[in-house]
Amino acid sequence: MGLILQEFIESPSIYACIECKAHIARKDDVISRTFQGRLGRAFLTESVVNEKLGKAEDRLLMTGMHTVCNLQCRNCSALIGWKYVRAHDKSQQYKEGRYVLEQSRIFPIDVGSPPAAPMDAAPGSPLPPLPLLPAQHPGSAIGRYVYGLGSRNTSPALRG
User: 3-state SS of 67-134?
Assistant: First the structure.
């Protein structure tokens, strides 16, 4: 078997595989959070990445007969949902080509937004440096050793 390349989603909010943490879908691509899966609540989504599809088969689901494929994580092969290939009922055709993600097989990752510049900063000016942690401060025992202000023998935190 060859090398498996993972796709990474550049979005502040995504869903990932619960087994291997591979990115699966953007939260913004979720169409409905009211679906019912085999294992409980599920989400209908527009697109996914890092997917592996099983063979198409007809299944009788809660909303009628559908042709679906099992949806697995490409990285670890965990079953995470299914893809609607065909809906036999016209009222369900909006699902065709879309994916259902089992909520219990994925988890959300919310990166959040990057730190904002101070309100009085000029546009385009760099952000101020982050404060040093106590262990990074040149005056601390570890800091004196790391910053070359002390030797290993004089640093109580590093005596061995």
Answer: EEEEEEECCCCCEEEEEEEEECCHHHHHHCCCEEEEHHHEEEEECCCCCCCCCCCCCCCCCCCCCCCH
Using CA atoms, how far apart are residues 83 and 39, in angstroms rounded to an integer? 16
Instruction: Name the CA dihedral angle for 152, 154, 155, 160, rounded to a multiple of 10 degrees.
Output: 60
**Amino acid letter at 153?**
N
- What's the Rg (C-alpha) of the chain? 25
Could you give the CA distance from residue 109 to residue 149 in angstroms, rounded to a whole number? 41
For the stretch 100-122, pLDDT in tens is 999 999 999 987 655 554 555 55
Q: How far apart are CA 114 and CA 65, in angstroms?
A: 46
Instruction: Give the predicted TM-score (pTM) of the model.
Output: 0.67
Beta strand 51-53 with 40-45: parallel, antiparallel or unpaired? Answer: unpaired
Q: What is the dihedral of CA 116, 121, 125, 127, to 10 degrees?
A: -40
CA 95 – CA 99 distance, rounded (Å): 8
